Amino acid sequence: QCTSLEDFVIFVGEFKSTIQSIDSSAHIAQLCEYLIDVLMIQNRKKVYGFITNLQFIRFYYVEKEQNSLSFKYYQSEKLKMFYMPSNLKNSSSASSSSSSAVNKKASNNEVEERVLLKDTIKIFIKFLTMTPDFYQYTMLPIDPDDYFFDDQYYIKRRIGSGLTSMVYSLINANYNETVTDETNRIMKICKDEDYCELLMNEIDIVEQLKSFNDRNNFNLFFLNIEEFSDEGKFIIFEKSLMPLESIKIFQGEQLISIMEYLYKSRIIHRDIRPQNVMHDIHHNHLKLIDFGFAAAFKNDENTKELEVEGVISYGGLKFLKLYLEGLEKKTFFTYQYERTFDLQCSLNVIMYFKDSTIATKVKSFKHLSLQERATTSYEFWLELKQNDKNYNDLLNLIENVSNLSDFQTIKQRIKVLFE
């Protein structure tokens, strides 16, 4: 939970007991360490903080120097938060010769009747209520006025971080949680306002998939959206899923069935990759997630020209070859996506999960440049096609898909991969 909350830190405040000094080097060093952690985790330029023992307060900020791992530290003057009116001081002096019981009572009165310093409290309130631009929080495109259903759910932990969004597991705010109990909710928050349109697209595509007259399979194959932001800042899904680490014969068939559902719905996902194929342990079924790059075909379309987005490394050979030609000529920005594009990607994902050697090889492409990754991927899948007859036969079947009955043939043929 601590790790996920780091994503939402606006500033850092340290409250110490009244008997501790805010001038302590250890306290100051601890606050500065927290501030640096926030700078690094959130990739911010500046972050503010304060230390108070409710008698005094001092403000700080740490600034990261450009193109460097060095930091600059700043602190304000030490500000007094309370004062004792003169009549209480006189009362305290007059009672100095009284009994110990009376002294104790007077001491308690002093604490109760201390008066806030108006100017300091104004500064503190101003610090707490500055505009979002002042704090320079840029981790997520959220605003203090945004409603994130925080009266219904608490963030439990961060479970994923992608190019365009962060994903968190949620627990019900009124739920009596035990060690093993969690509510089945996950929240996806876009990382930047420029990505909000991807979440809006996902909401629209999921609604289209749901409207297809096959609700039972929809519930098996995809996540239902429970709540979402009208601006596309977040989506709340009704189930939590587990990552898939390997694949069995029946799961390979399940993945092809999901591709069949998309084909019938005239939807193309465009981002079929291992991270987007998850396991629903409650139904023992695979689920496909992340429809940000998905698109719908019109009734008369069998290909659709779109800007290249989404998956690269798991694309088909034709896609990778044209993509490489475009990169070399610096003129390639679109591709005529086939309705079977996802089917080719899903076969490569099955090969990835089925064979740890293939998985290790494909993972090694991750840190290559875009052109190197596309080149290496093309060469790898081409070599596999040439050397693996079963893989080659499946590719030929996919390239010749023309009706829904062909999917059943592919599902039967998939079994051969596991023999």
The largest sheet, given as strand count, sense and whether it forms a barrel, is: 5 strands, mixed
Number of helices: 15
The CATH architecture of the largest domain can be named as Orthogonal Bundle
What is the CATH topology of the largest domain? Transferase(Phosphotransferase), domain 1
What's the level 1 CATH class of the largest domain? Mainly Alpha
Proportion in β-strands? 15-25%
What is the count of β-strands?
19
Shape: elongated
Distance between the termini: 43 Å
**Estimated structural class:** alpha+beta
Q: What is the overall pLDDT average?
A: 88
What's the CATH H-level superfamily name of the largest domain? Transferase(Phosphotransferase) domain 1
Number of folding domains? Answer: 3
